[in-house]
Design a protein that fits this description.
By secondary structure, the protein is mainly alpha-helical. The chain has 2 domains: 35-75, Arc Repressor Mutant, subunit A (Orthogonal Bundle); 89-180 and 190-235, Orthogonal Bundle (Tetracycline Repressor, domain 2). It has 11 helices and no strands. The protein has helices spanning 35-49, 56-63, 67-70, 77-89, 101-118, 123-128, 134-150, 154-177, 191-197, 199-204, 213-236. The longest helix is centred in the middle third of the chain and has 24 residues, at 154-177.
């Protein structure tokens, strides 16, 4: 008896073309890690979060690398901070153009303040850093040379350099992180209390606001520069203050 041969059912042919496999979009590649990129990222983090919250681990996360990769460029966090300070000093005009020494000192002072206001998170480190890197000591020497061009005397140049530094550093610290941003009392007094009990403070308060900072900075700076110019005229005529170091005050025993 002959066996029946059953034919296989015909396959259904799809009318649509086969789907192609699509590749998932690749993440954009990061730029290579360089010393300049590390510094730029560190400065950006400090500008936003300040020095207190800055860490090499956080910097590595921002750069998309392991912290050990950063140590390839900077042996320690201190080395990185030194480089950040050196980079900020590059923005200070230590050799501004011009013939008049007072005008040149004025340009230097304004550029120093601009650096502070441009990087308020980093400035507290700049203010207290000893600036004893090669870049730092050269910057100090160049500013001293600016002062000495106005006052051709080593002692006077050193003392006026210090006085000018006191003013610039204090003004910049106050504007970037000073009194208005400092810690408050547990129970601060109200404006009504100040108006009732501290009339001079109430009258002065509007002029402490940021809108007046430029004017106040100019007032202090121009007063100092005028005093330097007057000291230079006195020195030129030989009428200088005593050159000896001040003697310590000895109080009698009680």
């Amino acid at each position: 008896m002959a066996r029946k041969i059953h034919s296989a059912p015909a396959r259904r042919v799809s009318s649509s073309p086969p789907k192609r496999k699509t590749r998932s979009p690749e993440a954009p590649s990061r730029p290579p890690l360089t010393r300049e990129r590390v510094l730029a990222s560190a400065l950006a983090l400090i500008d936003v979060g300040g020095l207190a919250g800055f860490s090499i681990r956080g910097l590595g996360a921002a750069l998309g690398c392991e912290p050990m990769s950063i140590y390839h460029y900077f042996p320690s966090k201190a080395h990185l901070q030194d480089a950040l300070v050196d980079g900020a000093l590059a923005g200070v005009l230590t050799d501004p153009p011009g013939a008049d020494p007072i005008d040149r000192l004025r340009a230097m002072a304004h550029s120093y303040r601009d650096v502070a206001l441009g990087h308020p998170g980093l400035f507290p480190l700049i203010a207290v850093h000893r600036l004893n890197t090669p870049t730092g000591v050269r910057a100090i020497d160049e500013v001293l040379d600016l002062v000495r061009s106005a006052l051709p005397d080593d002692r006077l140049a050193a003392q006026w350099f210090r006085a000018l530094s006191y003013y610039l550093t204090g003004a910049a610290l106050d504007e970037t992180m000073g009194y208005a941003k400092g810690p408050s009392a547990a129970e601060p007094v109200s404006d009504a209390y100040v108006a009732a009990h501290c009339p001079r403070l109430a009258a002065a308060a509007p002029f402490f606001k940021p809108a007046w900072w430029d004017s106040t900075f100019e007032l202090g700076l121009e007063s100092l520069l005028e005093a330097i110019r007057a000291a230079a005229l006195l020195h030129a005529t030989g009428n200088t203050v005593a050159s000896g170091a001040p003697k310590p005050v000895i109080h009698p025993k009680r």
